[in-house]
Design goal:
The chain is an alpha/beta fold and about 325 residues long. It folds into 2 domains: about 160 residues, 3-Layer(aba) Sandwich (Rossmann fold); about 150 residues, 3-Layer(aba) Sandwich (Rossmann fold). Helix content is about 35%, strand content about 15%. It has 11 helices and 11 strands. A 5-stranded parallel β-sheet has the order 9-8-7-10-11. A 4-stranded parallel β-sheet has the order 4-3-5-6. Helix 1 crosses helix 5, helix 2 packs across helix 11 and helix 5 packs across helix 11. The longest helix has 30 residues. The two termini are about 20 Å apart. About 40% of the residues are buried. Bound molecules: phosphoric acid mono(formamide)ester.
């Protein structure tokens, strides 16, 4: 989709859905990060709310558990003046056989302008764009993409280093089942970073090399080169068979421990998308240590989600002005 260009040379955001980072142009990612940074002061409790989404309804359409993403989107939408509805498949008429599409259509009939969708089936948010008019935001679809998580990870890196180009970023853990890894790979490579994925061979799919990343099977070998390490959760719920001998073995080879931190660059930025499993992917002292930006990531998520909702609303306005 070619971007619109104003007479002043500025490009205009025209995308009506955020489905993944794979399809975004690098300028769009820069634009979201700039908008997110600009919105952060308005994301804090006590700051003035914006009026961008007054009269609009944002629905969290969640078919999988979530803490951060769900609360963050609700909070972001409220900071922009929207009405927010939280839908969970558990306890809903889904148990009586109602389909995902019919549920979404019902939400639209109730006034939904934006649907924030989390689902275990990859492509579900994309499917929805063919059935309803509301703007769709992918809040995690199976092992496919989790674009707002990667954007908040990338924003946290940019804040710390004031750049992305040339940085070495390690994604460690369950790459095979991680939508966060996929979105981070797309986003980071577009921003000019070097990406190394690291984990047990059984958790690194062969096709990942075609995405333009490097592979490291030994964390101890790659760690001294890294500026950033993003520690991914082992997704037991998506694994059909045991893909490594034991949690203890995984922790020994890939766990972020104080001993490993001592062998990393002093300025290493430690990220984890959460939820974290203390004692599996990282130790409590690393999670709460000086290199950790885990809670900065969560705070940055508000700015990112405010930016996304604003940009999608802006695109709808541009479209309605064009068709008026
Ligand atoms: N990082 C993340 O997506 O967390 P939740 O599953 O709690 O939303």
């Amino acid at each position: 989709m070619p971007p619109l260009v104003h007479e002043n040379g500025n490009r205009v955001w025209t995308r009506k859905h955020l489905l993944g980072l794979e399809e975004l142009f690098p300028w769009e990612i820069h634009h979201i990060l700039d908008e997110a940074q600009r919105m952060l002061p308005n994301s804090k409790p006590g700051s003035s709310k914006l009026q961008t989404l007054v009269g609009r309804m944002v629905v969290n359409l969640f078919y999988e558990p979530s803490t951060r993403t769900r609360v963050s989107f609700a909070q972001a939408a409220r900071r922009l003046g929207a009405d927010v509805t939280d839908f969970s498949s558990s306890g809903s008429s889904v148990s009586k056989g109602e389909s995902f599409i019919d549920t979404a259509r019902n939400m639209e009939a109730l006034g939904m302008d934006f649907a924030v969708v989390r689902h275990s089936v990859p492509g579900t948010p994309h499917l929805l764009t063919h059935h309803i008019k509301a703007g769709i935001i992918n809040a995690g679809d199976g092992a496919h993409e989790h674009p707002t998580q990667a954007l908040l990870d990338i924003l946290t890196i940019r804040q710390r280093f004031q750049k992305l180009e040339g940085l070495s970023v390690g994604l460690v853990g369950d790459i095979a089942h991680s939508r966060v890894a996929r979105s981070n790979i797309h986003g980071l490579l577009k921003m000019g970073a070097r990406v190394i994925v690291c984990g047990p061979p059984t958790l690194i799919p062969a096709e990942v090399t075609q995405m333009g990343v490097e592979i490291g099977y030994s964390l101890d070998e790659i760690l001294p080169e890294l500026d950033v390490v993003n520690v991914l959760r082992i997704q037991f719920e998506r694994q059909r068979v045991g893909l490594f001998p034991s949690i203890r073995e995984y922790y020994r080879l890939f766990g972020m421990t104080a001993a490993r931190m001592a062998r990393a660059k002093k300025c290493l930025l430690l990220l984890a998308p959460g939820p974290i499993n203390r004692g599996v992917e990282l130790t409590p002292e690393v999670a709460d240590g000086p290199n950790s930006a885990i809670f900065d990531q969560v705070a940055n998520g508000l700015g990112v989600r405010m930016a996304i909702l604003s940009l999608l609303a802006q695109a709808r306005q541009v479209e309605s002005q064009g068709s008026a």
